[in-house]
Design goal:
Length: 250
């Protein structure tokens, strides 16, 4: 490792150290105050980016708690994307292991929902598979497998995360939340991110299709969960939502 590389490693260590007085070894003492200012700006900027990416998580725990949690997240990161617009990958998994957040058991799933929304918003503009495109293969649809659209995600939870998320939106009507698991399909048709609730069988069906399983296999998995599963309406819902971007090549 060259002297420059060694200093960069030391600079990064001091930048993310727990102590606000930390500074890189070998730094000119006259530069210590400037480094502290830079360090504070970096931490503030990362915290702001994390709040922008996970606003509902921040609302649920309060800004002070969120920023303290963010500090621990910064120090735990092994790598990060260069774009602050997509900052915070892995935050949900981090929350799972953050003991101070254990009293809010649904918090990490709210983070997963917000992450899916963020990635859907910034995903590529793939061509969407429409119902009209499938007209010629309806008789063979059982054997067809689809490619997931880049802006389509499925989040499953044991908690009512869709209802909790909705309650935190501006102007939302406050109403009692039924304690039940929820499955949410996130897509971005017409450049607007949307959320669709799916029952358990519908989520199984959607999840298998998004994993590129043939329609027949996805249907079999869904009816194993619910023999009354309505495949027609669920499939139509997925197509209308823009869940797919073409057929898988076999």
């Amino acid at each position: 490792m060259s002297d420059v590389e060694a200093f960069q490693v030391e600079f990064s260590r001091a930048l993310m150290a727990a102590s606000p007085s930390a500074r890189p070894a070998g730094l000119d003492p006259a530069m210590a105050e400037r480094f502290a200012i830079y360090r504070n700006n970096v931490h503030r900027g990362l915290g702001d980016a994390l709040i922008a990416a996970y606003p509902v998580v921040a609302m649920l725990v309060g800004e002070d708690f969120f920023r303290a949690m963010a500090q621990s997240f910064f120090r735990a990161e092994k790598a990060r994307l260069g774009s602050l617009a997509l900052y915070g990958a892995g935050f949900a998994d981090f929350i799972d292991g953050f003991d101070a957040a254990a009293s809010v058991p649904y918090l990490s799933d709210i983070a997963r929902l917000e992450r899916a929304r963020l990635e859907a918003l910034h995903a590529a503009d793939d061509a969407v598979t429409t119902a009209e495109m499938l007209q010629g293969i309806m008789n063979d649809l059982a054997s067809v497998a689809f490619v997931r659209h880049s802006a389509c995600f499925l989040v499953r939870s044991d908690f009512p995360i869709h209802a909790i998320w909705q309650c935190q939106q501006e102007g939302a009507e406050r109403r009692p939340i039924v304690q039940c698991g929820e499955n949410i399909l996130i897509t971005r048709p017409d450049v607007t991110v949307q959320q669709i609730l799916l029952d358990d069988a519908g989520a199984i069906f959607a999840g298998r299709l998004l994993d590129q399983a043939p329609v027949a296999d996805a249907f079999a998995a869904a009816i194993a969960r619910d023999p009354q599963f309505d495949v027609t309406s669920t499939f139509a819902q997925l197509i209308a939502a823009g869940a797919f971007a073409g057929l898988r090549e076999t």
